[in-house]
Task: inverse folding
């Protein structure tokens, strides 16, 4: 369940599929544009049929995430621009997306962008009832305080750094 | 929900109605929470209620789309949400109750979050994989909702005299609608027999233990169980549903097919 989806570096992929993963690595998430959809861990599978018809499986981060439809359209648009005709995007709910699937480079980019990356793995469901220690993405201080469980998008919470006094967003563990 | 030889195959009609029951419940609660946008006591709580509403709306969209798919008459999630009459809705009566104040809203949310925690946990074992996979996804979101609402139950209940009174009033007003959560209502009873979802009564013990623990911590009194007349899942709604739908549906009713 916690096995991360493939990336273009996966040596077990067929070349045609690896090419699609490479293209998707360049499709930004509409709400956190420094991250690609691959780094966010929402691309679940890529299939290329014999006639070059492409199907991409994408998971919503949250069931109601309004970006889901924008993401599907931007994937289609990019693949069309690369010469793939009528690409399909299908929704994959199971197993549900987890913040554990945000890639290492994705975490680094989140931090650089000013969003604290997920602070722990969710493999133990008890994590929800223990407060994680969240480091300030600006000054790395651990003296931070949660201001609100929810923030500007469903995937983030609102924090404040007690050292540099800046507010920041934290990418929730789910 | 372990497989039992008594399980009978779920008919399309039953799966359709079960998807409507769960979808309507999430949809109506989402609409109620959405009424808070711009009105909550603080920006953080405004965001929290809106985010919770968004998760519930996401669940409703999956469930109503699936209902339309099973029905096979070409009705979309929007058709089912916007073009059905109040008497066609089978949401729990609890979720259509008005917001009143932040205290009432938190009580309603807490009671339903605690129920959804048990429901989705069990629904992951549904004989229908579409319900099972949605439950696995929704369960993760519900844990966040529950953490928010149970946290506020304690802060308000164990807060000032006024916050305590308001949340106790909310509890007293809404408690009579909790009986329906565990009483058989045809759709969920048949769904349980077909292995689609849990027997509603089976959720009661864990829900009660959970709710009692939070009420104790919040220094609130559990109201006595009373008989109740409303049964949303049997189409018996309070007057509030019609008002809610009138507002929610007016654009699609007035300008059919309008988009923006």
Result:
């Amino acid at each position: 369940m916690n096995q991360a989806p493939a990336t273009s570096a996966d040596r077990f992929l067929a070349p045609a599929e690896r090419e699609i993963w490479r293209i998707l690595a360049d499709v930004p998430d509409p709400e956190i544009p420094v991250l690609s959809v691959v780094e966010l861990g929402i691309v679940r599978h890529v299939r290329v049929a014999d006639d070059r018809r492409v199907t991409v499986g994408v998971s919503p981060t949250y069931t109601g995430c309004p970006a889901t439809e924008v993401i599907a359209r931007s994937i289609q648009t990019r693949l069309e621009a690369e010469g793939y005709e009528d690409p399909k995007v299908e929704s994959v709910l199971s197993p549900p997306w987890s913040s554990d699937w945000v890639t290492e480079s994705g975490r680094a980019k989140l931090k650089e962008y000013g969003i604290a990356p997920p602070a722990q793995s969710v493999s133990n469901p008890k994590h929800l009832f223990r407060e994680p220690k969240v480091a300030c993405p600006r000054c790395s201080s651990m003296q931070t305080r949660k201001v609100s469980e929810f923030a500007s998008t469903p995937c983030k919470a609102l924090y404040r750094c007690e050292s540099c006094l800046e507010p920041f967003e934290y990418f929730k563990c789910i | 929900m372990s497989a039992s030889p008594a399980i009978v195959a779920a008919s399309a009609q039953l799966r359709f109605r079960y998807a409507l029951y769960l979808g309507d419940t999430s949809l109506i609660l989402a609409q109620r929470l959405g009424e808070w946008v711009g009105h909550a006591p603080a920006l953080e709580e405004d965001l929290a209620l809106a985010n919770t509403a968004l998760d519930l709306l996401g669940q409703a969209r999956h469930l109503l789309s699936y209902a339309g798919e099973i029905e096979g008459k070409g009705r979309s999630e929007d058709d089912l949400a916007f073009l059905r009459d109040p008497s066609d809705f089978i949401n729990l009566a609890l979720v259509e109750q008005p917001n009143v104040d932040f205290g009432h809203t938190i009580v309603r949310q807490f009671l339903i979050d605690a129920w959804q925690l048990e429901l989705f946990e069990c629904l992951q074992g549904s004989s229908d994989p579409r319900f099972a996979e949605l439950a696995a996804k929704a369960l993760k979101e519900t844990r966040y909702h529950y953490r928010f609402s149970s946290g506020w139950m304690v802060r308000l209940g164990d807060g000032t005299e006024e916050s305590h009174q308001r949340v106790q009033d909310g509890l007293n007003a809404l408690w009579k609608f909790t009986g329906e959560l565990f009483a058989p209502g045809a759709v969920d009873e048949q769904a349980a027999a077909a292995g689609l979802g849990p027997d509603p009564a089976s959720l009661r013990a864990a829900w009660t233990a959970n709710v009692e623990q939070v009420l104790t911590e919040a220094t609130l009194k559990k109201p006595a169980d009373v008989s109740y007349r409303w049964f949303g899942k049997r189409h018996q709604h309070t007057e509030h549903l019609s008002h809610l739908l009138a507002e929610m549906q007016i654009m699609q009713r007035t300008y059919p097919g309008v988009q923006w």
Notes: Chain A touches chain B through 24 residues (CB under 8 Å). The CA atoms of residues 158 and 169 of chain A lie 5 Å apart. Chain A is about 20% helix and 20% strand.
